[in-house]
Amino acid sequence: MKLNLGCGKELLNNYLNVDKYPMNDQVKKVDVTKFPLPFKDNQFSYVRMGNILEHIPLDLQLRLIDELYRITSSGGRIWIRVPYGSHWTRRIDHYRGYTYATFQHIDSYWFGKGKRFKITSWSDHPTKFGQLLVSKYVRRFFDWAASGEWFITDIVVELEVLK
Predict the structure, then answer these.
(1) Where are the domains of the chain?
(2) Which pTM does this prediction carry?
(3) Cβ contact 91:59 at 8 Å
(4) 3-state secondary structure of 162
(5) Beta partners for residue 83, in sequence order
(6) What are the pLDDT tens digits along the chain (163 aa)?
(7) In whole angstroms, what is the distance from residue 117 CA to residue 105 CA?
(8) Alpha carbons within 13 A on the beta-carbon side of 110
(9) Class level of CATH domain 2-124+157-161
């Protein structure tokens, strides 16, 4: 089973589409800041979370990722799209921005629990200027060496759940 968490208007076929504010009767109402989430352990093989994590208060973001770990089966994937760097300031309801390092070190937040996630893919959504740098590897170099904010607006990371 697949979950589209915080779907908004973007309903996906063959997914359970959920949102805090459902826009129609095809969307199940779920508040992702209320724990535990109303799903069974290991219920989903794939969880999609597009531009929602940055809307979650900082003190709840790690709890949400911990819940995603609980509801995603071993070997399942969690797809996350978030604003890069200071691009989070585009909206007043964004709590923070993210870099690749945010997800490279995600297991360190659960010290002593072992490796829980493996990054299986990453990509970015370039700015108009960033589109001139055809390769995502060049944009990623700027993320590492300086600030990639001139080149990247959002990053997308897919995590494999290890249990």
Answers:
(1) 2-124+157-161
(2) 0.84
(3) no
(4) coil
(5) 154
(6) 999 999 999 999 999 999 999 999 999 999 999 999 999 999 999 999 999 999 899 889 999 999 999 999 999 999 999 988 765 566 667 777 888 788 888 887 776 778 999 999 988 776 666 666 656 666 666 665 555 566 677 889 999 999 9
(7) 10
(8) 16
(9) alpha beta
